[in-house]
Amino acid sequence: MNVSYQIDDEVIDLQLEGSVVSGGDEVLLAQDIDLLAKTDWKEEGYTVVPFLSEADFARVKAGITKIIKDLIVYCGGKVDDAFTLARYHMYVDDELHLKLAKEIKDGWLVSEFPIDIQIVNDRMSELLKEEVCTDLKGTQYDSFFLRIVRPKRYTDNNPPHRDVWLDRLRHAMNIYAPLSGSNKNSALPILPGSHLLRESEIQRTADGARLNGTQYTVPCVISVKGNTPKMIRPHLVENEVMLFTPYMVHGGGYNLNEDETRTSLEIRFWKV
Fold first, then answer.
1. Model pLDDT for residues 63-86, shown as the tens digit of each residue
2. Span 2-53+108-271: which CATH code?
3. Longest CA pairwise span in the chain (Å)
4. In Å, what is the CA distance from 225 to each residue of 16, 36, 44, 182?
5. What is the DSSP string of 189-212?
6. How far, in Å, are 55, 61, 65, 115 from residue 68 at the CA level?
């Protein structure tokens, strides 16, 4: 079946395989720990704010750049002194990118983060007015992730979805922190306010979506209240971060840039 969604003024058309379902009348966030509760942006479900000090952000970007350079070499590629995250697509072909994507899909332990992760935990706790961390001891939650979306490569990103359709991702808060190539043509799309929708108001694939021949692990949103999902790309400049609830519909972040790779940090936080 053909499906589509809108990102700002751009309409994305997809070919979908698989069955389509809707949930019950429950609002999932109403049943779970709500890390939006003390914020003044709880209705929208997201905010864009300054992230780190200039020095800390520079260390993060340099550290992630080194990680990716080393992985390109590990996967059989070559890099030189001109490499930057934004130029990633100039150094990999599809085969090499797929190898690297498999290496990074499970993320890294926060002990490998380029700066003390407590700096990030403290910043998120300040913004949420609630003590949170990404490294809950004795649990599976101790990782950070990197998303790499090449220009004009339409299989590099997930379709629109809610993280919390995977139970292990409930009760949390997400961040999207761009490191390169994030702009009006490429930033992560979101559907503000959709975290307050009942499950019955969202039509989605029953399991991981298969779109345009590519299999994904997350379900894909088909419609919202019977209409085409209309998402936006919030504007972020370097060293800003978007906090957003994983109960919100987000994704489908095709990179429509001509010649710039979008790379971004994805980190999840839980109440301490």
1. 999 999 999 999 999 999 999 999
2. 2.60.120
3. 55
4. 19, 23, 18, 29
5. PB-TTGGGS-GGGEEEESSS-EET
6. 20, 11, 5, 16
What pLDDT was estimated at residue 155? 75
Tokens 């997809």: give the residue: 14
Q: State the amino acid at position 256 in one-letter form.
A: L
One-character DSSP codes across 73-120: HHTT----TT--GGGGGGT--HHHHHHHHHHHTT-EEGGGSSS-HHHH
pLDDT tens readout for residues 84-140: 999 999 999 999 999 999 999 999 999 899 999 999 999 999 999 999 999 876 555
Which burial class, exposed, middle or buried, applies to 9 when counting CB atoms under 10 A from its CB (0-12, 13-18, 19+)? exposed
Note if the pTM is more than 0.90. Answer: yes
Give Cβ neighbours of residue 50 (< 8 Å, ≥ 6 apart). 239, 240, 241
**Across the strands, what pairs with 20?**
205
